[in-house]
Amino acid sequence: MSDNLIGKRDQVWALIDAKSFYCSCEQLFDPTIANKPVVVLSNNDGCCVALSEQAKALGITRGAPWFKVEREACSKGVVVRSSNYTLYADMSRRFIEELSNFSPCVEQYSIDEAFVRLDGFKLDQLEDYGRQIKQTIYKNIGLPVRVGIGATPTLAKLGNQAAKVYEQRVQGVVQIDSDHKREWLLARTDVRNIWGIGAKTATRLRTMGIDNALQLSQKSAPEMRRIWNVVLARTVMELQGIACIDPGDIDETKKQILSSRSFGQGITDFEGAEISISISLSASR
């Protein structure tokens, strides 16, 4: 990454992610558990790595050791599945293939989410296009997805987060298409929830009186580069609506450490190891 702060204002980005991906895959291939609380366990069946919305409503938390919650969960009708690497990898491939029908520029970010460039559309067409993406993916491969649309990858990511928080109100699609909407959303986004900002940086920003994304967006990018670094300066510009971060520049896996005693099945080749590791890392987010 270079140290310049050159950005662009004529880009449009969408971030599409699959809702409760592992659980959705399990429910898709076993319709008898649709709309039921589902928990997917880690590759050694040690902890909960994915939860359906119904399971979350029961108070089960991601990362919880299964032996601690098993008795109560089973008494409440929770369906349990072990991780199925082959299934998730295949569904991820289908997901990306479907997105490629909507844009020539698709950048997969993790097993269940991808950034898509939507340059050239009129602003009043984008939300409808986002709904078309959502409906088509569900119709063709059965995955429920959420869509965030903005002028930068960072704003698209925040739009996607808002689509989760306000899902019933917005029906899974949020487009940040005005300064008013952008500032409203940024004011309600904690600084630690900004894409690419880790816990340590968030804590240091709070010492400067920066508690939310709007306050950070109001800072001078050159000044933030002088005080901090070019990465944070670019985040400021992205929050202002100036695209200057490539999705590949952000590595959120560095925020997490995942420890596992073994793979869930014998791994004899690099491809199998890569699939297993990528699934485990994405589950830790």
Describe the structure.
This protein has 285 residues and is an alpha/beta fold. 45% of the residues lie in helices and 13% in strands. It has 13 helices and 8 strands. It has helices spanning 21-29, 53-57, 66-75, 85-99, 123-141, 153-165, 167-170, 179-187, 199-207, 213-217, 221-227, 230-239, 270-283, and strands at 13-18, 38-41, 48-51, 79-82, 106-110, 113-117, 145-150, 173-175. Helix 4 runs antiparallel to helix 5 and helix 11 packs antiparallel against helix 12. The chain is globular. The two termini are 24 Å apart. Residues 253-272 and 278-285 have low confidence and may be disordered.
Comma- or semicolon-separated keywords:
alpha/beta; 285 residues; 45% helix; single chain; 8 strands; five-stranded mixed sheet; globular; disordered C terminus
- The ordered H/E elements are EHEEHHEHEEHEHHEHHHHHH
Spatial strand arrangement across the major sheet:
5-6-1-7-8
Mean pLDDT: 86
Poorly predicted residue ranges:
253-272, 278-285
Number of strands: 8
Beta-strand portion reads 5-15%
The tally of helices reads 13
Distance between the termini: 24 Å
- The best one-word shape is globular
Structural class determined from secondary elements: alpha/beta
Rg from alpha-carbon coordinates: 20 Å
Main beta-sheet annotation = 5 strands, mixed
Fraction of helical residues: 40-55%
